[in-house]
């Protein structure tokens, strides 16, 4: 009984197993599955903490943690894993290249907004297509992930804007949505 207790089984489960004539195998299989799940959760947490510590200040750590909490309430664990996996597959250099392309695209769209170019203008429509294509590189074109990202943005503009250094009320996302609807 002591050796079963050392395997993490509760006294109640041990008592129940010993009172039956069936095998302990199903209990050990269930215990192994629970420990495997727990090990994955610990590894995910370890990876997150390591990534947070990599080059962050105390202030940016808190901001990043806040944003992670926002994301976790909109994306499923599988979707977050998919996003992380896609970023890892792309590699740091490609991700940085996509970010640079994104910033260039944002600059072009903001210039059109400042110039009063209607969202229905073909040039803006083309930029909105590029916006969607860049987004698909990160989301894999998964409609559920795209919808979660949209909901997250709509409900948390302030927190997200602060984290990515984006002016909160500049209307750019609405402008792109209008261009998208017009194409």
What are the main properties of this structure?
mainly alpha; 81% helix; HTH merR-type domain-containing protein; elongated; DNA-bd_dom_put_sf; TipAS_dom; MerR-type_HTH_dom; single chain; 2 domains; 183 residues
Question: Can you give a write-up of this model?
Answer:
The protein is an all-alpha fold and 183 residues long. The protein folds into 2 domains: 54 residues; 125 residues, no CATH class. The longest helix is centred in the first third of the chain and has 29 residues. The chain is elongated. The N and C termini lie far apart (70 Å). The model has no long low-confidence stretch (mean pLDDT 79).
SSE pattern: HHHHHHHHHH
The description of the largest β-sheet is:
none
Number of helices: 10
> Mean pLDDT across all residues, rounded?
79
Number of domains: 2
The backbone outline, from C-alpha atoms, is: elongated
Amount of helix:
over 70%
Question: What class, by secondary structure content?
Answer: mainly alpha
Number of E-type strands = 0
Topology of helices and strands:
Blueprint: H1 2-6, H2 11-19, H3 25-53, H4 58-74, H5 77-90, H6 92-115, H7 122-139, H8 143-155, H9 157-164, H10 172-182
How would you briefly describe this protein structure?
The chain is 81% helix and 0% strand. The protein is mostly helical.
């Amino acid at each position: 009984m002591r050796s079963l207790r050392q395997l993490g089984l509760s006294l109640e489960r041990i008592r129940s197993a010993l009172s039956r004539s069936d095998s302990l195998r199903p209990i050990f299989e269930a215990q192994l599955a629970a420990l495997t799940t727990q090990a994955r959760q610990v590894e995910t947490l370890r990876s997150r903490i390591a990534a947070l510590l990599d080059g962050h200040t105390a202030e940016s750590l808190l901001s990043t943690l806040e944003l992670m909490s926002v994301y976790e309430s909109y994306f499923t664990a599988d979707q977050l894993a998919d996003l992380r996996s896609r970023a890892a597959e792309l590699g740091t250099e490609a991700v940085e290249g996509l970010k640079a392309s994104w910033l260039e695209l944002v600059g072009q769209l903001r210039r059109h907004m400042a110039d009063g170019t209607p969202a229905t203008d073909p040039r803006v429509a083309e930029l909105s297509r590029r916006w969607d294509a860049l987004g698909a590189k990160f989301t894999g074109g998964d409609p559920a992930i795209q919808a979660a990202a949209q909901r997250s943005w709509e409900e948390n503009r302030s927190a997200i804007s602060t984290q990515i250094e984006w002016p909160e009320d500049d209307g750019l996302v609405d402008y792109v949505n209008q261009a998208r609807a017009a194409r």
